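Thread title: Can someone regenerate the structure for this chain?

I was given the following input by a collaborator and told the matching structure tokens would be attached. They weren't. Posting the sequence so someone can regenerate them.
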Amino acid sequence: MQTGLMSELDAVNKILAVAGDSPVQTLEDDYIQAILARQILTRTSRKVQSLGWWFNEDESVTLIPSITGIITLGTNVISCVANNDAGTVIQRGDRLYDRQDRTYVFTQNVNADLVLALEWSELPQAAREYISDVACTQYNNDFFGAQEIKANLDKNERASYLIIKSEDTDARDISMLNNTRAHNIAFRNRRG
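Best answer:
Regenerated them for you:
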């Protein structure tokens, strides 16, 4: 009986099970289907994480220019949105670029919101389930197209999406009562 967090090996074996393949014992196994399953899992993880969730977003991070004025982002930064700059500072590759001054050189710190690509071991269980369910669907679509299991895979993917979305909403404390726009709409007629 499995308990706790789903390991990356568990996720690969879950994907392999879609085609009825036997599980592998390690992630370093040279079985071609296991290699393909892990590649799909990695691509799917990157794609899902690029949406930005409570677990992989860092808000209001101060980015400090190097001695040469360049702000280089970490290799795990999927996206970077500078705050309060009217869209003039953007991410280009692994560096920030000032579109207004047409330069990569900055003389001041930049405050930004980051979306990070996390390793499997850093993901919460809801993310692991959703990513592995999406990867299972993708594996089936790419290699087998088995319609008889597609409905079940789609159902699993939808269920795990609802769970991750619910956790995201809870973690962000998103509600109509905490939303400034909703509050203004709800109470605009009460102003005297």
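The CA atoms of residues 138 and 153 lie 9 Å apart.
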